[in-house]
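Lab notes, practical 5.
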Amino acid sequence: MVEISGHARVVIIGGGVVGVSALYHLAKAGWTDCVLLEKNELTAGSTWHAAGNVPTFSSSWSIMNMQRYSTELYRGLADEVDYPMNYHVTGSIRLGHSAERLREFHRVAGMGRYQGMELEVLAPDEIRTRYPFTETHDLSGALYDPYDGDIDPAQLTQALAKGARDMGARIHRFCPATGVRRDGDEWVISTPKGEIRCEYVVNATGYYAREVGKMFGRDMPMMVMSHQYMLFDEVPEIAAWSRENGGKLPLMRDVDSSYYLRQEKNGFNLGPYERNCKAHWVMPDDPMPEDFSFQLYPDDLERLEWYINDAVERVPLLGTAGLTKNINGPIPYTPDGNPLIGPMPGVPNAFEACVFTFGICQGGGAGKVLAEWVMEGETEWDMWSCDPRRFTAFCDQDYAIAKGMEIYGHEYAMHFPHHAWPAGRNKKLSPVHDRVAALGAQFDAYNGWERANWYARPGDDTSEEATQTWAREGAWFEAVREECLAVRDAAGILDLPGFSRFKVQGPGARDWLNTLITGMAPKPGRIGLGYFSDAKGRIVTEMSLMALDEDFFFLITAATAQWHDFEWLTKHLPAGSDIAIEDVTEAFSCQILTGPKSREILSGLTDADLSKAWLTHQSAQVAGIWCQLVRVSFAGELGWEIHTKVEDTAPVFDAVMKAGAPLGLKPFGMFALNSLRLEKGYRAWKGDLSTDYTILQGGLDRFVKWNKPDFLGKQALEAEKQRGVNRRFVTLVVEAGDCDAPYMSTLWHNGAVVGETTSGGWGHRIGKSIALGMLRADLTEPGTELEVEIFGERFPATVQPDQPLWDPKNERIRA
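Output from the prediction step:
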């Protein structure tokens, strides 16, 4: 047995395609002093039995980027590392059964075009020109992806391994990591062959990641599904077609029936994602084995019967082929189906690159992203979709199992903007949850917190089916309009549990915050927005800074940003600092009271000074209960945020509702808030505000204090200011059809793509469709005419002045 010892810059635990890709990309970037540990042989986990499909399709911009990169890498990898691979770029046909599915295809085709890929939406009568053996009588169309295909997973992994080794990286097979410990600023990894020290460690152990995570004190948000695919005998007609056409049939996915069908040699490979699915290793009588290398589950074909029959009806040739083999293996799932790539939450110099449901098609891009995280502490593309910190403490194992099964059974589902998935709900409830539910609230989860999206009126259709549409005017539309107009004309109240909030206190807290934000921390008694940029000047996050004293602040941020923003603060805290940072999210709640009659409503409940100006705050009593009254409103009307201790939420809510009833107070939800904030041009995190854009591109110049001492990102922003921004944030009014512009809709001018939307929706106060977006800088002059591509159709749009569409001078909010 060869002993290992010494030091490496990075140790990667896990030798599947993702771990080996990470090693390859680190070495390619010059970090050759890296080691990979694999408990068995490379590919022994999920990689060896993967089907090896390599699609580019995704409705997520960042995941499409990652998958596109993989295909580009794989096409040249064999020649680059001198290792032969079976990689068939066959293209694919994705079948649609409905108009809604065709809209999804058009949207993804637009995103693909923006990334340099020409995806094609086909009419039903064009499908057989690409795939002559399919029945098309009940189809609405299809999406053709010429970049799709399949690859041999083992050969791919070995090619990446050869490339990494040739550049100087090391791989130790049959060498499991048995423990980890922190020693000063280093990690010490224990193995049966000795210990190895390193600066950084990566958990890339696939479906075994939860067990390895426990070594770091981490309970991973994941579970494991049983996934089967079937191999069928040779079909003479397929063999003849391949000879005649010199290649394989395109891979076919019937996404509404939930399976893929691929040519395998001259036969078929059928892989369903069945609704009646099965999780493994989740019950006491089915524990996770210590080692499952190169093993499979027993066949379980009964639950696939419907899918087999449906596939035979779609491609009758399949019914002539004999079944030769069934593969039933473990596939890991996170609660949203996306992998974990990025910093391990709360653990220094530790990263995750694991829980890949589609590891083969994402492996190349994942290695790139992981290498950037380790080497630079940031990534080229905003990768929040895969960031481990998106799942916080509420994600227990029951939640992970429920969501994983839901995702698997709806693997090809469309993600409609007003639809809420039902599994794993009610993890965190507001103290007034029952009250708002009784008022008709229709909920969705935000970092586990149930919040009202809208309030249904008697007779409104609240079925899940009613929300499965891209159209603007669903069952919620008129109710949301009434909520918005109540905020405009009288007042509205929004119960908003789960705001992330951090207490920052100690000598030098103000000066330290000023080194992190682009502007200046507010004076005591005031609140202001703080924008945090990275070293490249890109937008990391936005927080509200509430100054209670010279060196005492509450920082308030998005619910989903809880772990992300807390870690951003703590990692930039100087060593030996006396500044204390505490996450007090669970201790407080918030209600937004806003509208022209909000002052009148509060006046009978408090002796607070309600004449205090916009962007101020004060401790006060409301209905005899302590609260912090904050004079801000994300809705863009006169209003206050009422921050209370969690246990005091209900009596304050009751008192405000009672006082507001004669004045027209109405509860409103998150759909209304989104409409209201769009009319004000207020940005949303990880849509309008992300590391895909710099502070200056984001139109946040007024939040930059250029003459203050150095702050993070200042040098990059000064350089960008001097050369001029190449694109800039704009507000557009769109002459849209029956749909508003979704995230990443392309902007056109004179036949060329010139930008993208970052969010969109209907403004009920102004009665218009609004899009916020990023546009080529020379086109941002107000009045410039553009087109917005919405689900494949282009609609006229006009660039607006750099001011809110509603109350442009902020007279109402300052009233």
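Observations recorded by the TA: The radius of gyration is 27 Å. Residues 120 and 164 are 36 Å apart (CA to CA).
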